[in-house]
Amino acid sequence: MKSTDITLEIDVTLDRLIQNAETLQQSDWSELSTEEFDAFAHTQDSLLHHFLRLDAALETQRVTHTASYRIRTKTDRFYALKQSYQPRLNEQRRRRVSMVSKRRSKRWLGLHQ
After folding, report:
1. What are the CA-CA distances from residue 11 to residues 43, 46, 86 (Å)?
2. Which pTM does this prediction carry?
3. More exposed terminus of the chain, fewer Cβ within 10 Å: N or C?
């Protein structure tokens, strides 16, 4: 894959990561379902892995200064957004795991009494 193709794909992937992060940041977290959180987390993880794979491929290629600057700017923007939503997302995951554990323990205790 040529460096221009890789930089274009990275650019598109970063745009999607940023758009998803901004959408989540503007959302009312109390109205989001577990499925919506899972979908968001899965999408972001998938896009982030795709970005990292492309970035590793790009390291072996020569890139123009303009493309490098644009990618670095978008990467910085995404990571700043990620820092703002990641703690809240982790808390939601902890709550969900806690609720599931409580349900399972109640069910387990009900079966073994």
Report:
1. 17, 15, 22
2. 0.72
3. C
